[in-house]
Each structure stands twice: as C-alpha cells, then as structure tokens.
Amino acid sequence: MRPEALKRQAYSIAAVRELARGRLPRPVFDFTDGGAEDEATLRHNEAAFGEIALLPHPVSGAASRDLSLTLFGKRLALPVIIGPTGLAGLIYPDGEAATARAATAAGTAYCLSHGSVCTLEALAATGASPRWMQVFIYNDRGFTREFAERAAAAKYDALILTVDNQLIGNRERDIRNGFQIPPRFKPADMVAMTLKAPWLWTMRRDLKRITFGNYVRPGETADLKTLAGRMGKMLDPSMTWKDVDELRRVWQGPLLLKGILHPAEARTAVERGVDGLIVSNHGGRQLDGAPAAIDALPGVVEAVAGRAPVLVDGGIRRGADVVKALALGAAACLIGRPHLWGLAIGGEAGVAHVIDIYRREIDRVMGLCGTSRLADIGRDLIFSGPRR
Fold first, then answer.
1. Where are the alpha helices (DSSP H) in 113-262?
2. 267-317, pLDDT tens digit by residue?
3. Conformational region of residue 137, where left means phi above 0, alpha means psi within -120 to 50, and beta covers everything else
4. Which one of the listed residues 57, 114, 262, 282 is annotated catalytic?
5. Which CATH class is domain 3-381?
6. What is the pLDDT of residue 185?
7. In 10 A of CB 220, how many CB atoms?
8. Whole-angstrom Cα distance, residue 111 to residue 133?
9. 282 classed as catalytic
C-alpha cells in the first residue's frame, strides 16, 4: 500500500486491522488475530480499556508534549514497544527485519520472538536497537542457556522470559481453519484466494522457505513440520523459580518476565533479581478466562512497589489506552497484533505507520489532558467516579 493510501485508509489501528483482514488469507489472518477457546479474554483485553475514563486538567498548559522515556538505560522516543510475535515472516517477506527497522527508525525497542523466521543473529545484523530477545524454559535446560548465550553474543539489550506458554493454548480458530506451517489451503480457501493475489505475489518466493530459524541446528535439513513438533515438545510446564534463578545467573543484562498477572508472582520475581515485568495474558491466546491485562496491572504495580519497571501487553489499540496504562503505573506498553496488521498491508512502511498512529494519538491525548511529560501521568488522570 502506498504512503498516501496508508494515510487515507489506515487512519486507526482498527482500520489497519480491517485492511489486513482483506489482504491476508483467512487462515493466516486468524493466526494473527485469534485467541483461545471462546476468546473471552481476547475480547476483554480491549473492552477493559473502555471501562476506564480519563479525567483531564487542560488548564495545566501542555503546548508541547515529550513522549520520550529511559528504560533499562536506553532512551526511547515513545512508550510503545514492539512485542514478540512468532512467524512475522509469514505475513510479509523478511517480516522480522522489516519490523525491527521500523521500530529503530521510530526510536523504540523491538523484541524478537523465539519463533521468528530469521535467526536472532540475522536480526542483530540489521543493527536494530534497542533489541530484545524472547526465550522459554525448555525441557533441555541447556537449550535455554544456549539461547541466552547466543543473545549475549549477538549483543541483545534485554532478555524476555515468557512464562505463560509452557502448555500451548487451545486456539480454536486455527483448528477450524486447519492452519499449519507452512500454509496448506483447503479447496474452499483456494476459491477465496483469488481475492488474495497481492499477498500471494508478495510471498511467492518465501512461502516454501519459511522456517523457525532459531531452532535449526547447524547442518540440519529438518523440515518445518518437524521443527514445529520439536518446539511444542520442548516446552516444560514443570518450570519453577529455580529455573528463573539459573537464567538470572547466566544472563547478565536486563531480564524481564512476560506473562505475569498475579501480584504474588510479581513480588517474588523482583525479590529474586528480575529487572522488569510484563503484565500479559498472551493476548488471550493461552488461558481463556484470565483477567484483562489492564485489570491485572494495578495489583502488579502495587506488589512491585517501584522496585522494577512494569510494562503491560494486551488489547492496546489507541493512544488513549497507552495513557491509561501509564496512569495506572505502567512504564511502557507492548503491542503485538497491531504491528503484524501494519506489516501485512505495507511491510516496513506499514509498521512505521502503525507506530506513528500511536505516537500521534498519545501526543493528542496528553495535550487534551493537560500533560506535557510522561512522568506527569499519574493516577489523578483516572476518573474514579460513577460510570453510566
């Protein structure tokens, strides 16, 4: 999509999503868009932001606004970070690299998924910065250590341990669509595919080359189905705090836990030397029935009591959502699906456009609320009166 068309048609994150729906084959779109089981948590992630009202104080004067912040020693231009999402290279050729370049150009951080098409070393070679790396606790603890060591050698700025994905959620859209990697389309899909010719043309050279780059061993020729099966078997639901301690020992840089909802776990994490927490329910893709991320945020912030930055991920579709999260104590927000939708409609330019939507909306909301700096956004900006 050309820049002028992006500005005209992709005027909000919701509009970007609809454009992505129109471009991607249904199984691929649903892979990016869907959640677990009845998708109640997926829906509530977004709806919960609508239940929070802002209480502006416009006479404070906010002729100009500064959206920048410092996080783990790195200066970011805005409090929106690209979170880890697997198989971005299925959405657009070299999707991870394109997204990382857009994030770097926008002055924000990019977190590479463990399930990326490219390797973590290839992403590092793009020069994207700040760059974070996602990791899990595997049955083979040596493989977890290997991930951390590779990230250190490639000079990643932070390591994100995702803790809510040790069992794969029941993602019924993918089951219904028969979704698999690489994509195999049913006859009904092929009929509808005539409307997806632009995506097919864009991906014509890449569909057969899609793989999980970080799981391919040197000299190995394992096919993608084999790699996917290996990944699922490697996750270990017996993970304990001892594993977090060991990763903390191996990894010397900032270590964040992603998937924290319970205040007691948040408290334990900082007591054991974790540097940051990401309040997240995996975008509603894991435990359907978990609380919305924004609803869990205040309890985690209170438990941490300023000892580590708390970030939040899930359902953030407006700049106002970011401001609400900051007012409730978040240091920054992560986005997942929105950047994939931007990637689908415009590659690197589409991701840059998505980030710019958030930037413009945050700036506007801060101005309307009478707030000039992120540091001035506090609980007094949240309306606590009755709602009709």
1. 120-124, 141-153, 172-177, 187-192, 197-202, 224-234, 241-250
2. 999 999 999 999 999 999 999 999 999 999 999 999 999 999 999 999 999
3. beta
4. 282
5. alpha beta
6. 60
7. 9
8. 5
9. yes
